[in-house]
Amino acid sequence: MIARIAPAHLAGTVPAIASKSVAHRLIIAAALANGVTDVTFNTSCADIEATIRCLEALGAKVERAEQGLRVHPIPKSQEHGILRALAGATLDCGESGSTLRFMLPVACALGADVTFTGAGRLGERPLSPLAEELIAAGCDLQGLGSLPLTTKGRLRAGTFKLPGNVSSQYISGLLLALPILGQPSVIEVTGTIESKPYIALTLQALETFGVSVRVETGAALDGQPRTRYLLDGSPYRTPGSVSVEGDWSNAAFWLCAGAMGTECITVSGLSLSSAQGDRNVLAALSCFGARIRRSTGAATVQPGTLHGFTLSARDVPDLVPVLSAVASVAKGTTVIRDCSRLRIKESDRLQTTTKELCNLGARVRIVDDDLVIEGVDELSGGVVCAHNDHRIAMMAAVAATRSSGPVEIHGAEAVNKSYPLFFEHYRALGGSVALSEE
């Protein structure tokens, strides 16, 4: 699909969609609980549907309701009193890295002999050292390094060791899986943890479902930071109903458009005390010089005189594309550091962010694992490729608000991965978008 966007500033109010990060975790917990759970949320997307599809393949029953989902848990084994998966199931993860990295340890904890499949770059995205920890704990994984990937055997409780500079999804996946075993386990992470706020979301979901996790911090023998997550074996217990909060990651695109425009933009339905790391978009925009207004359940960004600064992407990697769009029209130089993890997203976002913003007249270059952006007064517009990456497509659409000419996005259907309503909301804020088939 091609999206042709005429230059125009956006303004107004748009509702936040449901956080897919929170939804993944709550839906998985619901499927592993001891009873039915109603999960309330206002929108779904391809990644959430992938997680639902995998849980259904393992025997959960997921009913669509007007306000979200009713999740009936995976059936229990009468013989052993443990959760049991359907042997021989195929788990299609689509292009969702979260789904694969969460469901792989869950399937292993269930003792499921299943096959994982997927699409796009998913098979190329790393699973090490999570895979090695699963194998050491009694599982047999065949097909590592690509898809399909098959699992056999059942995970044993124990101590799992991971470095902190790998995907936080490995830690979250183990945290979601280990309560199934009903025995104490420990996850030991050495070094500074990347994307730590996402682990906080997982701990929050576990607490909602009655799972006790104690977190200990200190230093290892070599002096590196060490974090230990101690699970006491408590099982998932349904709270009856849960609600998925609004998504800061996708709200960030509208808030950044507000900073780049001439009028304010408000996103409603957001928790200002959320554990989502991308809530820090407000702090970043304030550092750029935009004016921020917070109210109950909403955030508003008004334009200001934008100027570059230096920030770290360590805890907010998903914000890098759209913050790069803001930086491209901010006076002076912006440096976004600690971007190495962007290389293993749906696209190599260091490369694709740089290439497509430059196609629109920006001045962006890669220096090691950093992005260095020299601001210009106005972008030129042009033709970009989404590279099958939702955040690159949405970045380009936001960049169009500060372009002198139209922006044409090829592969614009990539937004369906996380935000199927993106172009509808873009129009609601006054944008001009024409969609056509390629």
From TrEMBL:
Domain of life of the organism encoding this protein: Bacteria
EC number in record: 2.5.1.19
Pfam family, one: EPSP_synthase
Listed name of the protein: 3-phosphoshikimate 1-carboxyvinyltransferase
InterPro entries: Enolpyruvate_Tfrase_dom (IPR001986), Enolpyruvate_Tfrase_sf (IPR036968), EPSP_synthase (IPR006264), EPSP_synthase_CS (IPR023193), RNA3'P_cycl/enolpyr_Trfase_a/b (IPR013792)
Keywords, in A-Z order: Amino-acid biosynthesis, Aromatic amino acid biosynthesis, Cytoplasm, Transferase
Organism: Enorma shizhengliae
Assembly with partners or alone: Monomer.
Higher taxonomy: Bacteria, Bacillati, Actinomycetota, Coriobacteriia, Coriobacteriales
One Gene Ontology CC term in the entry: cytoplasm
Sequence positions that bind phosphoenolpyruvate: 20, 97, 125, 169, 349, 391, 417
Binding sites annotated in the UniProt record for 3-phosphoshikimate: 20-21, 25, 167-169, 195, 318, 345
